[in-house]
Design brief:
Helix 5 crosses helix 14 and helix 16 crosses helix 24. The chain is 48% helix and 10% strand. The chain has 672 residues and is α+β, with helices and mostly antiparallel strands. The radius of gyration is 30 Å and the shape is globular. The longest helix is centred in the middle third of the chain and has 25 residues.
């Protein structure tokens, strides 16, 4: 980097010191608890490189990074897309800001980053990786990825190891990067001893002989208890005992490399198992980001908007620029995680605040769930819920009026400093308020876009709240009841949800009929008869089912190991846990070829396909209806030379089929 570039970036960084400090202060006031964040100013090419590298400065040598860099660069050149920032999940987090951003853009991405860092630090699914480490508080992702990069580079530079073979091995491993058990806490797998015939005592060897195990599997038996458990069973033994979703771990522990000259599987080299370990660790590290894309981006968009708009972190001369920035982000095409996520977080806030108000109204004498909508004037309720002018408008000349509001809303120490001129309340009015005061100031139900939300409560919801309401308080009037409302209830609930949910559970809980109707969500289907797409349903159950399919297992097919000694021949049997959407069989066959290299012996895959007779399609077209597909079992096998596909009975695959599925979305239309 030239001195000119360095001085330019240093000047930008100096201008952003105050926004960075104050964004952190505001985020903390709002209840966020992010990791420390280190900000870096980078240029356009550096941004593309970091995006290609997944947000880190150092990754292992591989062609995939160049491909991703080229795609990112072309996206910016030809589709008008622009990356404003990238932040990684680390402690401290590292955020990279593009130097060409306007001041409004920089402020927006700084507030966005602070919310992301809070999500990284407090969401339990991100802890699934760190809890497997010796120090739970320290993620050290950058250090881990740097170690991996150095180790793989050393393997590639080793004169005894073919560089092309290392890259090919990485390709094989990456074909399984989503085939992990992301719902389990990450842990390093123990090394597995090779064939142990010489170490098996005579009694144990006799038991193994009775079980009709192959020689190779005998060496992979872990304990005598395992053998004793199987002793009374007929036929050959299977392992694992239950399907194992962490396919990467299974091939790491039990796989071999295929030796073409010997025509059989042989023990992996140390570097091969080492790379398998590294690829698996990285897959687990990035899993949480894939599992929480909607939640995480929606969370960041929500708090960015709160800070930039509601708290006017964007100055008067920056607001229009920021509004344009945010509109473009939320209006981008496809299933937009920013838009969907932000809408859902606002819905969580609004429904919680509405329930809090309704519960208080139902405790008023003479009001029940049966008559509430008839005897309560919701417009008057909203007027009462408006924030007091003392906290709605804060300026140097209005500070004395804060003496009239509850103490829990005001930071008395900061108020005194503001009176002494130590705090610029004209620019940062939020500094004299507490978390509770800011929740009151930004109470969601009285915002212009949400003013109809309270009155929209339906009779079923009123009955549900009323029937399960503890009668622990009674009020003589509506005004008395509203004085006791917890204005921070919505935010408190959001923080609770942020801690425990992932995208699948988030959508499952909050994607209600009310949300779907108000935000105009619907499902579409592909017609076999017409070859076109059409709107199918706007029912909550259908929309939820369609979306959940796109987010379950990262939107990828769920594959598990069902037998590592299939047919007692050391072959690998995988099963596709079928959810109504069939595999892309072409890609499945190519993936089996990759797995064969990691297993060193034939690989099998059981799956279910849907087949439609051409005659049935023609009949359906004439009758203006959809043909009924027939589901059939298939076994795909790759033995190192060729791929064979054979029909199997329904009994052989019935255990793979889900009970409640959606049959109409094409895999090509799914999110990757």
């Amino acid at each position: 980097m030239s001195n000119t570039d360095r001085f330019r970036k240093q000047a930008i960084a100096a201008d952003l010191e105050e926004p960075v400090d104050e964004a952190r202060n505001l985020a903390t006031k709002l209840g966020l608890d992010p990791y420390p964040v280190k900000y870096w100013i980078i240029d356009y090419d550096e941004m593309n490189e970091l995006i290609a590298y997944g947000g880190f400065q150092s990754r292992y040598p591989h062609w995939r990074w160049g491909m991703q860099y080229d795609r990112q660069q072309k996206q910016g050149q030809y589709s008008g897309g622009k990356a404003f920032e990238i932040v990684n999940n680390d402690n401290p987090a590292h955020a990279f800001l593009q130097e060409s951003n306007t001041v409004a853009d920089q402020k927006a991405v700084i507030t966005h980053v602070e919310a992301h860092s809070d999500f990284f630090a407090n969401n339990d699914w991100f802890g699934m990786f760190t809890r497997g480490q010796s120090d739970e508080e320290q993620v050290n992702a950058a250090a881990m990825l740097e170690r991996h990069a150095r180790a793989i580079d050393e393997y590639m530079s080793d004169p005894d190891i073919d560089r092309a073979e290392v890259e090919k091995w990485i390709d094989h491993c990456l074909s399984l990067e989503d085939n992990i058990d992301q719902h389990q806490v990450f842990s390093r797998r123990l090394d597995i001893e090779g064939p142990a015939g010489d170490q098996i005592d005579e009694d144990l060897a006799a038991k193994l002989d009775e079980l009709d195990l192959s020689d190779e599997v005998k060496g992979e038996v872990f304990t005598e208890e395992w053998v004793e458990k199987l002793e009374g069973e007929e036929g050959a033994a299977n392992f694992p005992e239950t399907p194992q979703k962490d396919v990467l771990a299974f091939v790491r522990e039990h796989g071999k490399q295929y030796d073409a000259e010997a025509g059989r599987g042989v023990e992996m080299e140390e570097w091969q198992r080492d790379i398998l370990d590294m690829m698996r660790a990285e897959a687990y590290y990035f899993a949480a980001q894939k599992m929480t894309k909607v939640m995480n981006e929606g969370w960041a968009a929500y708090w960015e908007s709160t800070m930039m708009t509601d708290e006017a972190f964007a100055g008067d001369d920056e607001f229009v620029n920021y509004a344009d920035h945010m509109a473009k982000v939320l209006a981008s095409g496809g299933l937009n995680p920013y838009s969907l996520g932000m809408e859902l977080w606002e819905y969580v806030e609004n429904t919680t605040n509405r329930q809090e108000v309704i519960e208080h109204l139902l405790r008023v004498e003479g009001i029940s769930w049966r008559n509430l909508t008839e005897v309560v004037d919701f417009d008057e309720v909203l007027e009462t819920l408006e924030p007091p002018s003392a906290i709605e408008t804060i300026a140097p000349g209005t500070l004395d009026s804060l003496e009239e509001v509850p103490d829990e809303w005001v930071d008395r120490e900061a108020l005194e400093r503001a009176r002494n001129g130590e705090i610029d309340v004209e620019t940062y009015p939020w500094k004299v308020l507490t978390y509770e005061g800011l929740a009151r100031r930004h109470y969601s139900l009285v915002k212009r876009q949400n003013r109809g939300f309270l009155a929209r409560v339906n009779q079923n919801e009123l009955e549900r709240i009323g029937r399960y309401l503890f009668d622990d308080a009674r009020y003589s009037s509506v005004d008395e009841a509203l004085e006791e409302v917890d204005f921070a209830a919505g935010w408190d609930r959001m923080f609770d949800v942020r801690e425990s949910h992932n995208d699948v559970t988030f959508l499952d809980e909050f994607l209600t009929q009310e949300f779907i109707t108000e935000n105009n969500y619907f499902t579409y289907e592909h017609s076999q008869a017409t070859g076109q797409f059409h709107v199918a349903s706007d029912a909550a159950e259908d929309v939820k089912k369609k979306l959940l399919l796109q987010f379950t297992n990262f939107g990828k097919p769920t594959i598990a190991v069902y037998d590592g000694n299939y047919n007692n021949a050391n072959e690998l049997l995988l099963g596709h846990q079928y959810n109504g959407v069939m595999l892309d069989l072409g890609k499945a066959k190519e993936t089996l070829k990759r797995i064969f290299e990691l297993w060193g012996r034939p690989v099998n895959l059981l799956t279910i396909v849907k087949e439609v007779d051409e005659h049935d399609i023609e009949v359906a077209k004439r009758r203006n209806r959809e043909p009924e597909p027939e589901e059939r079992g298939k076994l795909i096998r790759y033995d190192g030379d060729s791929v064979a596909t054979e029909d199997v009975s329904w009994e052989d695959v019935e255990h793979l089929a889900a009970d409640d599925v959606d049959y109409d979305t094409k895999p090509d239309e799914w999110l990757a």
